[in-house]
């Protein structure tokens, strides 16, 4: 990751061949379906599309002076780093009655935009997207909004794409919600 | 309670009632979220006590600075060119503008963005634009930055707003015996990993502070869904089998409180890599060293709002952490957490991975803390109510007050202060200790 304000997509300069366009639509569709699953709390179905070596990271963001040579997104401190096993445990946990953080379920809506392809290889596609995630909890109508840019690597498998790697660069230096559960990423 | 009373009167009454109710192990629920109480906490507690502001290792180079707060007051935590640490009130002596707009950075001078007064990073005013033309004889020395009292304990830096009061050493009193073990167990000491993590939650600062001081009672209920999972490491299962009642201890000193879990069967050194045994801090006494060797984890709260953790949990570790439940409004906090590891292990990637996994279990994204904040925020909402006043609703911290199966340790085999076995499960004296401190400061006895 570059150390600038937020992860930039380097100009790939790749030509829009019919194959690349096809890829773009497939990948975009994957991101949108995935978001729908998260919004509907279909976490087990969501977890069906993870590779076994998947890792999801949410780095801490630090407000820095303009021109600082230290990165805004910490390279040594994360709100979370989760691998495959841990993700499945989390999915199992959130389904339990006593997982207070998501019982009752948060009312969540992802709005996904600015989808751009990064590097495309034979079996892996790098894709960037921005997102605004609306979250409402409790009964008093209060809501939080978590804004982020994601960078994901999707790998082609026999059952279509699977998520192999993801950074969620949240725009906030202070997490604006009382917790960051899976459906919000 | 005067029902129509104004907020100042109400706050004073709540303070008085707390003093009386504490004898029965109670306090008015309303003190968790009340404007008048909150204002007085800032003035009578946060301005008067030693507040954790950061760790020495965060500011490596001269000029390194970080934005920190004492209560709600903005301060600049900085290392000057001579290597000295300071906490400057972030407000220009001319008209009060702020210097710092980033969380961390490096600078030799703080230049005011308003009219350009410029201060060296040791607080001295050096440049005043058009000084000769504007002033006959400006007393620049008198206009140096307002500075909090700053003292350091084992690399942990504390600051105080008022000038007079006990030294940090006196303030930490007997609790230091335990802090020595938790915060400085190895030769080279602890060092901070990365930047602190921050989250905002509708949580009163007293609630998590009290929780970290010894509330093992909540584990099965708040965290049931996490403890049922396959996470549990094999080492954790062994402890589980041994039974938490026999392993858990509460410790209370005059002002502070904590808990720790010891494993008696063999030295386990918090599940640190074995080489840690060769790097124990020689300043520790034999008893302190023995306690560290048996420790699973140690947690505690340095009154008012700095909680510590050192050890492992079913999800990962060992790791050390200090956390600040920083008040940002009635019933609301910013939770700031620092990760620390023994300097001897700071480059051990395999160890760091385990340490971070544990540390992240107590992050907003972590499986444990996600449920804590959810539960705690309900307390804020309910206690800020007319019902809490009209019906004189009280929180109950009387567990073990009249009768308790917890076992006092009086043979001197542990450290100073009041130590009880199974305290965290059977006795809420840790909470009574902290609310007692609260009451003493709020009623201005201290
Ligand atoms: S307020 Fe700082 S120079 Fe005027
Ligand atoms: Fe908890």
From TrEMBL, chain A:
GO BP: 3-phenylpropionate catabolic process
Oxidoreductase is among the record's keywords: yes
Organism (species): Haloarcula pellucida
Alphabetical keyword list: Oxidoreductase
Keyword Oxidoreductase found: yes
CDD domains: ring_hydroxylating_dioxygenases_beta
Superkingdom: Archaea
Protein name, entry field: 3-phenylpropionate/cinnamic acid dioxygenase, small subunit
Transmembrane regions: none
SUPFAM superfamilies in UniProt: NTF2-like
InterPro entries given in the database record: NTF2-like_dom_sf, Rng_hydr_dOase-bsu
A single MF term (Gene Ontology): oxidoreductase activity
Automatic annotation (TrEMBL), chain B:
A Pfam family hit: Rieske
GO molecular function: 2 iron, 2 sulfur cluster binding; dioxygenase activity; iron ion binding
Annotated PROSITE patterns: RIESKE (PS51296), RING_HYDROXYL_ALPHA (PS00570)
Domain Rieske, residue spans: 50-159
InterPro entries: ARHD_Rieske_2Fe_2S, Rieske_2Fe-2S, Rieske_2Fe-2S_sf, Ring_hydroxy_dOase_asu_C_dom, Rng_hydr_dOase-A
Keywords noted in UniProt: 2Fe-2S, Dioxygenase, Iron, Iron-sulfur, Metal-binding, NAD, Oxidoreductase
Similarity section: Belongs to the bacterial ring-hydroxylating dioxygenase alpha subunit family.
Protein name according to UniProt: 3-phenylpropionate/cinnamic acid dioxygenase subunit alpha
Native source organism of the sequence: Haloarcula pellucida
């Amino acid at each position: 990751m570059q150390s600038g304000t937020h992860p930039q997509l380097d100009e790939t300069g790749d030509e829009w061949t019919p194959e690349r366009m096809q890829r773009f639509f497939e990948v975009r569709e994957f991101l949108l379906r995935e978001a729908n699953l998260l919004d509907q709390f279909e976490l087990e179905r969501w977890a069906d599309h993870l590779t076994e070596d998947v890792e999801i990271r949410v780095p801490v963001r630090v407000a820095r002076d303009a021109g600082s040579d230290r990165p805004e997104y910490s390279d040594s401190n994360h709100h979370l780093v989760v691998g495959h096993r841990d993700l499945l445990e989390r999915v199992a946990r959130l389904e339990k009655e006593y997982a207070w953080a998501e019982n009752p379920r948060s009312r969540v809506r992802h709005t996904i935009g600015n989808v751009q392809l990064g590097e495309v290889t034979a079996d892996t596609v790098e894709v960037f997207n921005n997102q605004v995630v609306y979250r409402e909890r409790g009964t008093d109508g209060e809501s939080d909004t978590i804004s982020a840019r994601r960078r994901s690597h999707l790998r082609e498998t026999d059952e279509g794409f699977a998520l192999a790697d993801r950074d969620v660069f949240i725009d906030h230096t202070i997490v604006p919600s009382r917790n960051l559960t899976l459906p919000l990423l | 309670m005067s029902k129509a009373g104004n907020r100042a009167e109400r706050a004073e009454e709540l303070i008085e009632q707390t003093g009386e109710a504490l004898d029965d192990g109670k306090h008015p629920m309303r003190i968790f979220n009340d404007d008048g109480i909150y204002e007085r906490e800032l003035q009578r507690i946060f301005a008067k006590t030693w507040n954790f502001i950061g760790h020495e290792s965060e500011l490596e180079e001269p000029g390194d600075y970080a934005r920190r707060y004492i209560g709600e007051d903005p301060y600049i935590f900085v290392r000057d060119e001579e290597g000295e640490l300071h906490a400057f009130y972030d407000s220009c002596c001319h008209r009060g503008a702020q210097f710092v707009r980033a969380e961390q950075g490096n600078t030799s001078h703080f230049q005011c963005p308003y009219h350009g007064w410029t201060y060296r990073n040791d607080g001295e005013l050096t440049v005043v634009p058009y000084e000769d033309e504007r002033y006959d004889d400006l007393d620049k020395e008198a206009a140096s930055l307002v500075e909090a009292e700053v003292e350091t304990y084992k690399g942990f830096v504390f600051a105080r707003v008022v000038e007079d009061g006990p030294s940090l050493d006196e303030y930490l009193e007997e609790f230091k015996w335990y802090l020595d073990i938790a915060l400085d167990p190895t030769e080279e000491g602890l060092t901070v990993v990365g930047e602190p993590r921050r989250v905002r939650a509708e949580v009163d600062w007293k609630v998590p502070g009290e929780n970290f001081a010894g509330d093992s009672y909540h584990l099965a209920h708040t965290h049931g869904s996490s403890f049922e999972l396959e996470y549990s490491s094999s080492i954790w299962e062994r402890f589980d089998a041994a039974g938490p009642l026999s392993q858990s201890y509460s410790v209370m000193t005059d002002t502070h409180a904590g808990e720790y879990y010891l494993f008696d069967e063999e030295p386990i050194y918090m599940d640190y890599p074995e080489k840690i045994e060769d790097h124990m801090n020689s300043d520790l006494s034999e008893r302190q060293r023995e306690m560290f060797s048996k420790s699973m984890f140690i947690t505690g709260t340095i009154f008012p709002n700095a909680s510590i953790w050192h050890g492992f949990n079913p999800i990962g570790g060992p790791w050390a952490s200090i956390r600040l439940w920083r008040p940002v409004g009635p019933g609301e906090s910013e939770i700031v957490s620092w990760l620390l590891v023994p300097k001897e292990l700071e480059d051990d990637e395999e160890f760091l991975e385990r340490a971070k996994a544990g540390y992240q279990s107590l992050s907003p994204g972590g499986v444990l803390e996600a449920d804590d904040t959810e539960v705690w925020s309900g307390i804020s909402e309910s206690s800020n109510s007319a019902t809490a006043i009209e019906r004189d609703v009280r929180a109950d911290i009387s567990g073990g007050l009249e009768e308790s199966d917890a076992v006092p340790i009086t043979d001197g085999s542990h450290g100073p202060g009041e130590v009880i076995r199974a305290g965290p499960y059977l006795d809420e004296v840790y909470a009574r200790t902290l609310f007692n401190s609260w009451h003493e400061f709020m009623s201005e006895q201290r």
